[in-house]
Amino acid sequence: MEHLNRSAIAAYLSYAIQSTGQAIAWQFVTHFVKHGLQVDSFLILTLVWSAPAFVTMGAVSLWGSVSDRVGRRKPFMVLGFVGYSSTFFFYSFVTDVAQFLVIAMAGAAFSASAIPAGQAYLTARTEKKGERLGFFLVVQSGGWFFGALASGLLYNIVGMLTLFRVSAALCMAATALSFFVVRDLPVDKTVVRPKVSFWELIGRPGMARLALAASVSAIGIYAVSYGVAIIIIDELHGDAAYVGYANSGATLIAALITGYVGRLIDRHGSTPILAAAYLSYCLYAVGFAIATDPMVATIFYMLPIYALAQTGAQAFAARVSSDEERGTAMGIVNAAQNAGNAIGPIVGGLFAQFVFAGLLQPVSWVTLSLNLVALMLAYSLFNIEKQARRKKDSFPSPEAPAQPSVNVDEPVP
């Protein structure tokens, strides 16, 4: 790992803390709405999960573009952390599903600014974009591990409303750290290039197929994972702690391997990693569909495949964009993944309600089908990346010339 200055370390730590708070709240959302707010319909549970994800899908691209135009990253990191904290705080006072849905959608509009801003900030002025993005997912996974494990063990003891307040406090700590310690790294505009629109960027070789593959795969995954607590607890009759073990296990293993994945991408390219991820999702879907024991399902869910899929897709987008375009590029990838987060539960809810007699676990066969499509799309990117790597390992959009190391601890004028 290349040397990191204090500001970059503070940025990574901020996202680790925020991810801990997010994981505490996130894994039991549908179970809390079903049992805590007395909602029995899969279609309403689908709406609760999908509506905020649709908001995020649009907002993440918007905030990425605004960040590029403004030329700053830190304000959007802080705004996103405040969005997370406020959302979880107000969740702790809801009494019905309508209140929950309004708060979730409003919070998603602002929290969506955090991720593309952070990714753009941490990949600026470095050639090791895959490694930086890999380590970004490492710190997120570390936070998700501790958050998922803690909420899994405490869910039946303290209740979800208390856990929401803990999540809010952690995200506010991330806000304070990023506000007071992270020094902004303005986008270098000394290299003048024509402005690139969203449509021009997504029109670059392979970018549209990458976004489609990421979206299709995520639809398949979220068709099941949005209700994993319902599957493990209600359908397979496991303990709530199993849900915590499943999510924390996946994120712990991801935290251990993602840095290495980033280095592999820098050396060999992102498309082999993407293909391996989508093939692994296909195998996971089969295993999860036929599991009859909650511990077996928990073990399958622990597979850290998302580390390959996310790092590979983000590294491809980082290569196709220059520093001043990176917020937009990361916004495209995050929007594609959030499209899956939004559409997947709708697909899962419809299949569970009308095809599989109210059961969510068999929707795993839909996960298999969609990831086979994503796998074919990933294979179609091999030649594009191979040709690009022959041209000094750069995509058709030239990256800014390498710049000397900048001490981002110095105040920005």
Explain the layout of strands and helices.
Layout: H1 6-26, H2 29-36, H3 42-70, H4 74-91, H5 97-111, H6 114-122, H7 129-158, H8 160-180, H9 198-202, H10 207-225, H11 228-235, H12 240-268, H13 271-290, H14 294-301, H15 305-320, H16 326-354, H17 364-379, H18 382-390
Helix pairs in contact: 1-4, 1-7, 1-8, 3-5, 3-6, 3-16, 4-5, 4-6, 4-8, 6-16, 7-8, 7-12, 7-15, 10-15, 10-16, 10-17, 12-14, 12-15, 13-15, 13-17, 15-16
Describe the structure.
- By secondary structure, the protein is mainly alpha-helical.
- The chain has a single domain, classed as Growth Hormone, Chain: A.
- It is 75% helix and 0% strand.
- It has helices at 6-26, 29-36, 42-70, 74-91, 97-111, 114-122, 129-158, 160-180, 198-202, 207-225, 228-235, 240-268, 271-290, 294-301, 305-320, 326-354, 364-379, 382-390.
- Helix 1 (6-26) runs parallel beside helix 4 (74-91), helix 4 runs antiparallel to helix 5 (97-111) and helix 7 packs antiparallel against helix 12.
- The radius of gyration is 20 Å and the shape is globular.
- The chain starts with 5 loop residues before the first helix and ends in a 23-residue tail after the last helix.
- Residues 392-413 have low confidence and may be disordered.
